[in-house]
Amino acid sequence: MAGESESRTLSGPVISWPSVMVVFLLLAAASYGALIQAPEEATMGLVQRIFYFHVASAWTGFVAFIMVFIGSVAFLRTRALKWDWLSVASAEVGVAFFTIVLVTGPIWAKPVWGIWWTWDARLTSSFLLWVLFVSYLILRTLVDEPERRAMVSAVFGIFATLDIPLVYFSIWWFRTQHPQPVIGGGGSLDGRMWRVLMLCWLAMLGVMTLLIRVRYRLEAMRTEVDALRLEAARHVR
Amino acid sequence: MKNLNFLVAAYVAIWAIFCVYLISVARRMAGLQDDIRRLKEGGK
């Protein structure tokens, strides 16, 4: 399956320097916005500034996991391994972003709620989503044959993404400790805070794009190694 | 400056997670590049 078009992904640079510079500038601007430019929240004070990268990471994680769904469905339809590469790259990057969410959330919660963690619907479903995608990555290590690994992963990836609506809508459906949603909920956000949040999300989407591209290349290289090993084994026989 | 330590901890954690992940990907890539070079040399 690693045909000519797929092997072409190994030629040329993984990411261009201009794109790295753009993302770096976006991150610098987002950090300035979150730490200095955004107004201080009246009740929570300084610690509320964690919110900008916490929420932006959660939304970016959702985008990465939706890409796993798209890649998994596309693989099942076409059987082209490039879609499996996209799925695993997106899953791993999504796990990194959700690790940020699960680490920064408790750091924010301790001074605001007085506790690090509570098993409410939003926190539990977010943790479950992270566990599901960590399981997806572990599952891949248990299957050696690339085609079969891609097939099993695609089915599991589709199943895992079903948790995304549960995470997102849990604060509408259940009474939770977690604050109200920023979009479409009862919460209101100052215009300047809103602009900083959007800038942080844009920066995180830029980081996600670069990381997925690098991780995609890694998966392409792994397929090349498998093909070379197979060829070497044929020569020995 | 109340709770500054929590704010600093959160931002340090974000960058630490990105750094650990980037190092992990770079190490795996370097390993695979070595494998590809070795296998191509062995095939000649």
Question: Could you describe the 3D structure shown?
Answer:
Chain A is mostly helical. Chain A has one domain (18-177, 191-236). Helix content of chain A is 77%, strand content 0%. In chain A, helix 3 packs across helix 6, helix 4 (81-113) packs parallel to helix 6 and helix 5 (121-142) runs antiparallel to helix 7. Chain A is globular, with a radius of gyration of 20 Å. Chain A starts with a helix and ends with a helix. Chain B has 44 residues and is an all-alpha fold. Helix content of chain B is 91%, strand content 0%. Chain B has one helix at 4-43. The longest helix of chain B is centred in the middle third of the chain and has 40 residues, at 4-43. Chain B starts with a helix and ends with a helix. The mean pLDDT of chain B is 92. The A-B interface holds A 31, 35, 45-47, 49-50, 53-54, 57, 96, 99-100, 103-104, 107-108, 110-111, 207, 211, 214-215, 217-218, 221-222, 224-225, 228-229, 231-232, 235 and B 1-4, 6-7, 9-11, 13-14, 17-18, 21-22, 25, 28-29, 32-33, 35-36, 39-40, 42-43.
Secondary structure: elements and pairs:
The complex is a heterodimer of chains A (237) and B (44).
Chain A: H1 4-7, H2 17-37, H3 50-78, H4 81-113, H5 121-142, H6 146-161, H7 163-173, H8 191-236
Helix pairs in contact in A: 2-8, 3-4, 3-6, 3-8, 4-5, 4-6, 4-8, 5-6, 5-7
Chain B: H1 4-43
